[in-house]
Amino acid sequence: MKDYIRKRVLDICQHILESKHTVRQSAIVFGVSKSTVHKDMIERLPLVNKKMANRVRVILEQNKAERHIRGGEATRKKYKEAGENSKK
């Protein structure tokens, strides 16, 4: 694994552990694709550091389990704002 990839993997891992961000949020912060973040955390991180990989996996699984809730909240907010704008 090239050094810049190893550094990115560790940087993204540290960011997720500190912030509990989703793959999508982390991708935006680091300017890479969601696929890159996912591959880094699921495939590359275990090769670099197994303990950190297990900790990140727990966070990612929690985010995955909660995503339907976040999606529902986003939809509710969207229609609430649309309703407020139509009243003006």
UniProtKB/TrEMBL annotation:
Keywords: DNA-binding, Transcription, Transcription regulation. The keyword Acetylation does not apply. The keyword Transcription applies. Residues 69-88 are annotated as: Disordered. This is Sporulation transcriptional regulator SpoIIID. It holds the Pfam family SpoIIID. One of its GO terms (molecular function) is DNA-binding transcription factor activity.
